[in-house]
Amino acid sequence: MDDKELDELFTDPAHQEVVDLLKASRPVTPPLDPNFRLHLRTQLMAEARRTLTPRASRSWFPFTLTPRVLAPAMAAVAAGFIVVLGVEIYLSNQPTRSLVAVDVTPFHNKTNVATAEPIEITFTGPVDKAAVEETVQIEPATSVTKQWSGNTLVIVPDHPLAPNTTYTVKLKPKAAAPSANPANPASTPKPAVAPTPVVVHFTTVRAPIPPVVPPSFRSSGVTYGFDSRLGDSSKVKILNAVWTPAGQLLVTRPGGAAGPATSATPSATATASGPSASTDVWLMSTSGTAIRLVAPGGNFPAAAPTGGLFSVWRQAPGNQANLEVRDFQGNLVATVATVDGVPDRPAVWIGSDRLAYADKGLLRIVGLHAPLEAPALKVDHGSLAASPNGQLLAVQSTAGSVVLDLSPAPTQRLLDGATGFAWSAKGDLAFTIQRANRTDLYVFSAGKTSRIASSPNGQTWSDLNWAPDAASLLFAARPAGGDSTGSVLMLVNRDGSNPIMFGPQREYSAPQWSPGGDLVLFTRRDEAGGNAFWTATSAPSANDAAEKQALAEVDKFMQARIHGDHNTAQDELSDAGRAAYQTGASSLFSTAGTQFDRYYPVTVQLTGTNPNTFLVGVRIFVARSGVETSFFEEQLTLVLQDQRYLIDGVKASDTRALGHGPTVVSVQILQTPPGQQVRVRFDADLKASSITSDTIQVRDGSGQRLVDQVSFDPDNHLATLNVVLRPGTYQLVVTSGVTDINGTALAQEYSAPLVISR
Amino acid sequence: MPDRFEERELVERAKLDPDAFGTLYDRYFPQIYRFAYSRVRDQSLAEDVTSEVFFKALKNIKRYTYSGHPFSSWLYQITLNAVADHYRGAAGKEVELEEGASLPSTAPNVVDEVVRRDRSRRVWSAIDQLPKQQRAAMVLKFGEDRKIEEIAQILGKSSGAVKLLLHRGVERLRRELPPELELGTP
Question: Which of A616, A717, B64, B66 has the smallest number of Cβ neighbours within 10 A?
């Protein structure tokens, strides 16, 4: 068995020996009753004759081609001239009969497509790239950059796609003009245009459902899930990586690393410029997909906490480096500083408008548009970290460690030797002090310093990183002496209690929680002895178990409805719920000629406690002849009965047609004392000017409009309303004044209940 | 790749044509039965699982959509689900070790078995003792010669995760097989 995959995967001779042994052998042949195979075949064929009723066949070739094009194309296929897997359309450069096919297999009818995944459409021959690009249409409206990698069109969404959404990409291929025949110009074939567009449908992944009861990342509750190597290949070398607030990654890779090639035609993607680059900074998805080059020649990126910006060091002529601020499209916003030499670490954001860095060993602070005065502190390679509110900066200087208050308040001195600073989201500062034979871990909070834990003798702790809810700290523990092969990740509660090992391996370090807490990024020794970046899933505590339990019942209920399982669906209903469906509050099953195709939860709200009750808004997609054409929503009330959540009530919305402008894909309420945030996510890229307090409103029970502030994050199609609501039931209303980037308005007003519980 | 083109056409025909479905059955029965047996280690159970797999395939074939992977990947997925269904509620039957647990390489019964059987059988017996996911990945890779991408699709994991499973599986075999089982000692 010659298997290149195995050769690439197993390079260690000890592993190769085992692999060779396995390759040279086969599992034992299982015992088999000779009659069984025939018996089963007979049964199956009888069943097949009963159930496989011949009908008019629907071809896997879904495009209508004119006979002029179809004939030679299919003839060629039949003759075996060209075989392309997937959904294909053929263009013919007649009369030469050279054919160009389109392979959309990787995306067509796919579900669970990652929201940051570039869409690739491969042509088997040369096409008129500019003409093809012009014909690309995406529904819901999505701003994209079109690039080419050989004959593959790579459509890169400028922002992550919306989850739970079916996208339609249409394009009309046009073959490249064939070479002229100088001997007989009249016979020069003309480029052919596909008579009908290529249509690709795909559905993005389901979004994680945000917990309405906040999860806890206390060490007793967090578990290490599955891990995977970032980039999915040992060939993707990543030098450093940091999270962006949206849960993507900024990574530094060796210069010239592969990604979608830049189009020959104008593109919004940054192109290499400036000095020759040894490293590049890319925006990358958590599955390791390089989304776009955002800083050619850059290194040490750092994402601003808000505002969609990041800082990066870029080489400049004369052995200098520029500190640049860019947006996630790669556009340069400002060059804020220039230093001599090559920086060895990222700048530190102070809030979203200032940056701290070291120049010739001295602390510097710079605003996005002007330098600011900084205390004359010599920091060399000491630790720097800014508090989340941008007011405090922890600095390890050669004269001692301090917390600078950037407001007029006095500076506070930290214990001697304090280093490895990390601020929590709640404003606690964690740091370590290296003692003779151990490491002490401290937390500085509200002006007071407490030692919360100490390492065992002979062990050092470093790489502190707070959990998103500030309930625990992750860090690397290694034997004294810096042996990184013995490094493990540890998780300890904020008060120092319950230190546990996080993850099974003994070579992990530099942990970083993702903003949402669902992943941990860390480094791990790779086969070559270097460090590779990995992510591990984490599952927070069971605090939100009730919500999960309720959602599991909703899922069972919805799957039963989708598959027509009457008994299971009925079993998920309380008497009141059953009565609601029987009296026509909504349809339990699809009507004739239609099918419930899929569903997902749009909102999950806690409506009562002890025991918890939930209001779950589900969106149900209705298909005709296998194509989703409309959707409606149900608000399901879930109550606990006999240790189990049952559906106790339902209210259904009107049915809405799909493909007629942007729609709301999720609504989330966050408690942000003293008020709340209502986050409304859309499926399309929106015209920012259409998001106002007139077009997205919160109304009280009497329909009275409440005062709110609306902000808009175009990168995530996210409108955020800041409100202060007392406990009660309100209504979110999104009017048809909201329009996408093409000017298409919301087809119908959207409304959903908002429940503020105590 | 004309074989895939042909397979895809055959699957499309099998949605309407019983004979085409019979051809699929003839083609894939051996590997599905072998895979089912590798998971349950019991002839009668393997027959039940195989029967269930093909009846489910028949029932759902009209919903099957070609996704770029071989048709067998879909059958393997159904097999894994069928095996899981068989053991749901019947704890302890399917040999299962938690991640991080040690192989019982020093347990007398395993050692006796190892000594008794030939080298090939011994290494595959050791694979049987791996955790469920690792075992599935190892059997599909080394027993069924599946591509990593196909295994990823079958197990519902990323390619990277499958590579990790294989790596861990081989590493555990290396660590925990008795030394005499390694190459050079038939």
Answer: B64
Q: Is A44 close to B55, i.e. CB distance below 8 A?
A: yes
What is the CATH topology of the domain spanning A659-758? Answer: Immunoglobulin-like (2.60.40)
| CB-based contact, A32 to chain B, within 8 Å | yes
% of chain B beyond a pLDDT of 70 = 72
Is residue A169 a contact partner of residue A178, using CB atoms and an 8 Å limit? Answer: no
Q: What chain B residue is nearest to A85 in terms of C-alpha separation?
A: B5
- What's the pLDDT at B107? 34
Classify domain B2-87 at the CATH class level: mainly alpha
Q: Are A615 and A601 in contact (CB under 8 A)?
A: no
Q: Break chain B into its structural domains and give their ranges.
A: 2-87, 108-181
pTM of the model: 0.51
Architecture of domain A542-656: Roll (3.10)
- CA-nearest residue to B66 within chain A is A86
Q: Measure CA A98 to chain center.
A: 41
Burial of A608 (0-12, 13-18, 19+ CB in 10 A): middle
Interface confidence (ipTM) of the complex? 0.78
- pLDDT for res A215: 64
Burial class (CB in 10 A: 0-12, 13-18, 19+), A700: middle
Domains A67-204 and A542-656 share a fold: no
A143 to A146, A161, A422, A672: CA distances (angstroms): 10, 10, 37, 32
- Cα–Cα nearest to B4, from B62, B70, B96, B59: B70
Q: What is the token pair recorded at B11?
A: 């699957």
Residue A174's pLDDT band (cuts 50, 70, 90): low
Mark yes or no for CB contact A504/B99 under 8 Å. yes
Smallest Cα–Cα separation from A415: which of A377, A374, A458, A444?
Answer: A444
Q: Which class is B108-181 in CATH? A: mainly alpha
Say what percent of chain A tops pLDDT 90. 32
Nearest beta carbon to residue A9 from set B119, B127, B167: B167
CATH number of A67-204: 2.60.40.3710
